[in-house]
Design brief:
Helix content is 51%, strand content 11%. It has 470 residues and is of the alpha+beta class. The longest helix is centred in the last third of the chain and has 18 residues.
Length: 470
């Protein structure tokens, strides 16, 4: 009989359950991941003890979902969800059971779970696997299949098809035929459409942290789910980019999704920016006939996307707002999108580099460079050649920005040697003119950092005040 190794902390918890006459099992994703040979640090337990009995056994227990049999036990520095074996009836709200009863067996409890790979338990006593729905076989075959009829499972909770897609993408599994077909059933589609935007967003967040987010988004497109929640992305299908110049191999949608794959897995901000970085290309697209030298004098179609970075930023902000992302994250992502087509020449002066840093923001530089590399990856599904002209230019610019920053240049109004109070003390009246003078001085300091002394800036400010029409 197959077993897995039970972590020491869970063995100690099991001692408490046993000493009180109860049994407990590790269940769900942790068991699945351990069977796959992965580390699992988030643990969910199931037990024949009721929530009230669990509360009496442990010192700190939070009733996080006690109405549905779940509490969170704080034990040895960890938060561990513990759910009582239960049977469920009815899902009127498309998410929560109408009735929960606790007179269930372990097998009955596992039967209410979504997918077979998540309906596997392991005894906390000896690690023995309990697998009534052949989840281990599905893991071996890399198949994602529902427990019981897919239609029934999906009608219980409209999020389950999206979770299934996310699991398939994260694990590199195929959706079993009936499971895939049920996702496109009209009733199931209506149920999917009814879930909250926040729940959908949470799945997108997890998907964007997988190795290849494109796998999940392609499945969302095939099942029609993408057009429910992010129709602007779905509409990018068929927007061609490829012309004789060979910059792009894919249409806009595939390019966007492959750019996500090419963004750093551990940088969620850049992955999210990649997902929307070219979403405005539909509006920006133009086609012109051009006599291209390599086309033997023939006229060919050349596709342009002038100002698509601006269009994409404008379009991304309401989408991200609709998806209920935090405002601070939205602002950063939109800013990266707006700046992602930055142009650089190696003959830039230090002043030009400083203005670039100010425009982008010191804190955004590395994310912007990462987005540019991801954009290039999305062109042909391969990393940018470090020896190519584009890569060398980015690395030169990165080095130039570091050199400029190391010189202690003033790269914001706050870093200038004077402020508005200094100007007013010098006799310049409070008002709009103060801000205009400070901005003019800042532009001068960007070009010539040596001007950033209080004495020189005050003298320049007094001259501006007397001679300028600011």
């Amino acid at each position: 009989m197959k077993t897995i190794e039970i972590p020491e902390i869970l063995q100690k918890m099991n001692g408490i359950f046993k000493s009180n006459g109860y049994e407990a099992y590790l269940v769900g994703g942790a068991v699945r991941d351990m069977i796959l040979g992965k580390n699992a640090s988030d643990w969910d337990l199931t037990t024949n003890a009721t929530p009230e009995q669990v509360q009496s056994m442990f010192h700190k227990v939070i009733p996080t979902g006690i109405a549905h049999g779940t509490v969170t036990v704080h034990f040895m520095g960890k938060e561990i969800e513990v759910t009582t074996y239960r049977c469920e009836e009815g899902f009127t709200d498309g998410r929560h059971p109408d009735k929960v009863s606790y007179n269930a067996t372990l097998e009955e409890d596992l039967s209410r779970r979504d997918f077979t790979i998540n309906a596997i338990a392991a005894s906390l006593s000896d690690g023995t696997i309990v697998d009534p729905f052949d989840g281990q076989k599905d893991i071996e075959r890399k198949i994602l299949r529902t427990v019981g009829k897919a239609y029934d499972r999906f009608m219980e909770d409209g999020l389950r098809p999206i979770r299934g897609i996310r699991f398939a993408a994260q694990l590199g599994f195929e959706l079993e035929e009936e499971t895939f077909a049920a996702m496109m059933n009209a009733d199931v589609q209506e149920k999917i459409h009814s879930i909250s935007m926040e729940r959908f967003r949470d799945e997108v967040v997890k998907l964007l942290k997988s190795n290849e987010p494109s796998l999940g988004f392609h499945l969302m497109e095939k099942t029609g789910i993408l057009k429910f929640f992010i129709p602007e992305l779905a509409e990018c299908r068929g927007c061609t980019q490829r012309d004789i110049r060979g910059f792009h191999e894919f249409d806009v949608l595939d390019h966007i999704l492959y750019a996500c794959d090419g963004a750093p897995k551990d940088n969620f901000t850049v992955r999210l920016a990649a997902l929307f970085h070219d979403i405005g290309k539909m509006e920006a697209r133009t086609v012109e006939k051009y006599e291209y030298p390599s086309a033997s004098g023939q006229y060919v179609d050349i596709i342009h996307f002038h100002m698509h970075d601006k269009y994409s930023a404008q379009k991304a902000k309401p989408i991200l707002t609709r998806l209920r992302f935090p405002n601070q994250l939205i602002e950063k992502v939109v800013h990266l999108i707006e700046q992602h087509m930055f142009f650089f020449e190696t003959n830039w002066t230090d002043g030009a580099v400083r203005r670039f840093i100010v425009r982008v923001g010191k804190e955004n530089l590395e994310d912007l460079f990462a987005l540019r590399y991801a954009d290039e990856y999305g062109g042909h599904r391969r990393p940018m050649d470090p020896e190519c002209k584009e890569a060398k230019a980015i690395e030169i610019l990165r080095q130039r920005t570091k050199e400029v920053e190391s010189k202690n240049s003033a790269l914001s109004l706050k870093e200038m040697a004077i402020n508005g109070s200094d100007l007013m003390k010098a006799g310049i009246p409070a008002g709009k003119k103060i801000g205009l003078i400070l901005n003019e001085l800042f532009q001068m300091v960007l070009e010539k950092p040596e001007l950033n002394t209080k004495e020189q800036l005050l003298r320049l400010a007094e001259n501006f005040s007397k001679t300028s029409s600011l």
